[in-house]
Design a protein that fits this description.
Chain lengths: 371, 371
């Protein structure tokens, strides 16, 4: 089986390290940062990609592309299927606005949706700690059911495992998902001149979680934004690139789009792209700003679970469509895609509220178990 | 979305309990038995099935059928896709003959294969404990790679999460898989007159694991049988029913086939089926027998991870094809499918070596974390 669509082949060596370097970068032991969605996570992925030889189906998009879903061309070429997986280890299991069950269905529906796929089915694999209250399990399965009905996507298969008390912290859920692709969207597709649009305020999910963990309280209840984005995505004009800013937040999502859209195979001409966003225009709730100030976090690096950021050449129609959808009422154009300038390797630039410009670097912040 | 192919609808009330009964049966807390593949596992599944409303795609086979894979008919009806998921929590991570990485790819390839599907792609979702040695991770990913190459099935997408030290016991892996279905095989398809064939000795995997846990040693090394069954399944004549005897072993596999093949919707006439097997004919290695005697286990209830049991009306060709495949050299015809007799609810009868006949009941044995 070939690897025709390899995303990080040796030719793109600058974007990914070799296996030996990746191992070295991991320094012998896995740390929480390797799961936090930033730089260390990318190093861990390098190691995994380097070990797997059959990374995709012929002509498909495989694991080394690190897209939100893989793409599989069926044997007769008649259909392209999107396929994705995600394990949810979020803590606490119940948090303002949602729980791990709701999150686990939404997250996988969203990974399919941002690729332009119509989600068709999800799976549900539970790992449960011995002694876990059946009542809590019922609530969580009930939330999975509500998310499945809200998205209109059935839960068609599953698995349950029980681990001895102390071997797993409560419960974790893996959901995988399958979608049918008509019009493909890739996170490597951003083009010079595109407008960058985010569908709503960022960071709500991460801060809603952290507020429970840290015992913060707000004047108004801050709820997780977790929601299935399939109908929103289907209502907007086909974007050039899309991503849901989950682990690592808007920061990681934009850096990934900028990096991937600058890989030689992704564009015919030019030196790649940069993304330039305006701090003033990025929607962030005041509770999120306040909590981030208190906790020393950057709201742009805090996870959302019901937002999407798109790069599009149809900004007016996209904004209009988003704003007329319940999940896109807070949509904002936050910046533009420009041609790469100078020698800087940086991909994302933030024009600050004070009028300066700074590089928005992918962080290695440890906010573990937010998804 | 409809539920046209519901497997355990209210009409089949005898085979599945109502939600309230299922909750009651769970008695407030999840126990290890709920994950062991026996009676309690079935009760836990009842609870989950009862909570999920969208259980399948239109015309497909969904979660309530508890087949090894779900079946999804694509929108234009041109293709049927098999979809399955499994989380591997096996302990220890490394065991004679294999490790969790090898097992996780084989298991999912097998769940597709026993449905008559050609596996097309698998996913790989890792949950890793903080502090886990990178070297062990490399070995495990290396084993996933070898299994992927052996089966000829690429690993196309993945996910990695890290949990705090003490929150997860080492590492667990979820793999989901997609296959293309040409000729469907269901575990509800067994027919009166079929011969029951198992592809090799049973219980090797479970006893190889337990031997490490319990410190047993054998004269010869007993290795796990874990292996990808896709090429074996593709080499035999299409059976009426097939199942890989994993959790709960041959016992659970045969009881499930007997139960499902007796559901009214599965057959037009008659009172259902029984499966009658001969203890003398069931291949069990002497090391497995000895270890089971020592541990008080029934070899027929111990897990395999590279065996398949089929019900077929072409026993000669099936045995010949199996024996000419490296994974089927130890294949044996072990019994027959007969018409249900008398009033007994039992589905599987064992003719013992001593000449008696006893009911082989699904056990509720706790051999946790063998897969």
């Amino acid at each position: 089986m070939g690897n025709e669509n390899s995303c990080f082949s040796k030719e793109d060596g600058k974007t990914r390290e070799t296996m030996a370097e990746a191992t070295k970068a991991l320094q012998g032991r896995i740390s929480l940062a390797h799961g936090a969605g930033g730089k260390s996570s990318a190093e861990l992925l390098d190691l995994i990609f380097s070990k797997i030889e059959l990374k995709n189906t012929p002509g498909g998009i495989g694991i080394d592309c690190a897209e939100d879903s893989a793409l599989i061309n069926l044997v007769d070429g008649s259909k392209t299927i999107a396929f994705t997986t995600d394990t949810y280890t979020v803590k606490p299991l119940f948090f303002p606005g949602a729980d791990i069950g709701w999150l686990s269905v939404c997250g996988t529906v969203n990974d399919l949706s941002v690729m332009g796929a119509k989600p068709v089915a999800v799976s549900c694999s539970l790992v449960i700690e011995e002694g876990f209250p059946v009542q809590d399990l019922e609530k969580i399965i009930g939330s999975m059911n509500r998310a499945s009905k809200t998205a209109g996507v059935p839960i068609v298969c599953g698995d349950t495992k029980v681990m001895e008390k102390g071997s797993i912290d409560g419960l974790i859920i893996n959901t995988a998902g399958i979608g049918e692709v008509a019009d493909l969207v890739r996170n490597s597709g951003a083009k010079v001149g595109d407008t960058v649009i985010v569908s709503g305020p960022v960071g709500d999910h991460g801060i809603a979680l952290l507020s429970v963990r840290e015992g913060l309280s707000f004047e108004t209840l801050l709820e997780s934004d977790a929601a299935p984005l399939n109908t929103l995505m289907q209502s907007i004009p086909l974007p050039h690139a899309a991503k849901d800013p989950t682990r690592g937040g808007l920061n990681s999502a934009l850096n990934e789009i900028a990096l991937k859209s600058s890989i030689p195979s992704s564009h015919a001409l030019g030196r790649g792209i940069e993304i330039r966003i305006d701090e003033d225009k990025i929607p962030v709730r005041k509770e999120v700003k306040a909590a981030c100030a208190m906790l020393g976090l950057d709201p742009l690096s805090v996870a959302c679970e019901g937002r999407v950021v798109v790069c599009t050449d149809k900004p007016t129609e996209t904004l209009e469509a988003m704003k007329s959808h319940p999940l896109g009422k807070g949509a904002q154009a936050i910046g533009r895609v420009t041609e790469k300038t100078g020698k800087s390797k940086a991909g994302v630039f933030l024009r600050t509220a004070e009028g300066g410009t700074r590089v928005l670097r992918m962080q290695d912040e440890v906010i573990p178990r937010i998804c």
